[in-house]
Amino acid sequence: MNQPIQSSDSRAAIKPVAPSSLLLKAAVAHTATYFIAGMLAVWLLDYRELFAHPPYSTFMRPMEDPMMRIAPLLQPVRGVLFGLALLPFCGVISAKKHGWALIWLLLFVIGILCPFGPAPGSIEGLLYTQVALLDQLRGLPEVMLQSFLLSWTLFHWVWSPGRKWVGRALVTLMILMYASMILGLLVTPSPKP
């Protein structure tokens, strides 16, 4: 399972990727970029207010809900799943100078525009839900930013040997993120029912 994945292209042959390395790096990159995009969205898109009113209040937890504070801690699991999904495509991704764009295209089309359910902002969401168009589009900046950041940082961390700073920055951000969230969980009292 830990055999390097290589393509016949000379660019990819320079930097073979062990599956365990890709899964670990995908977990860290997803968690860090999820945190960045999520914090920007909470601040710039005022999720606290948005989630307090329909249509979002009918399916999103309020920002004060304890699960909203715990969920970011579980993001490495999603990152590993993203890494698993990318494993079969390593040869194609690594062979391209802008392989991050291939990753982003996959995430954008399959994860945002065409998921298998009627998520807000997706084609299915527009067709099958009664959520107004403007409300459908409100969350798109966050998911588009996060999928772009994930694609760019993961590609450059895994397949660009000269960009070691990307990995260092992601690991540092993840450590700071976890420390602040754990401190927040310990210090902030849970709301009483």
Provide the domain count.
1
Low-confidence stretches: none
Distance between the termini: 47 Å
Quick one: how many beta strands?
A: 0
Mean pLDDT: 88
- The run of helices and strands is HHHHHHHHHHH
- Which percent band covers the strand fraction? under 5%
The helix tally amounts to: 11
Share of residues in helices: 55-70%
Shape: globular
Largest sheet: none
The value of Rg in angstroms is 18 Å
Class per helix and strand makeup: mainly alpha
Structural summary, described in words:
There is one protein chain. The protein is mainly α and 193 residues long. The chain is globular and about 50 Å long. The model has no long low-confidence stretch (mean pLDDT 88).
Task: Give a short summary of the structure.
This protein is mostly helical. It is built from eleven helices and no strands. Helix content is 66%, strand content 0%.
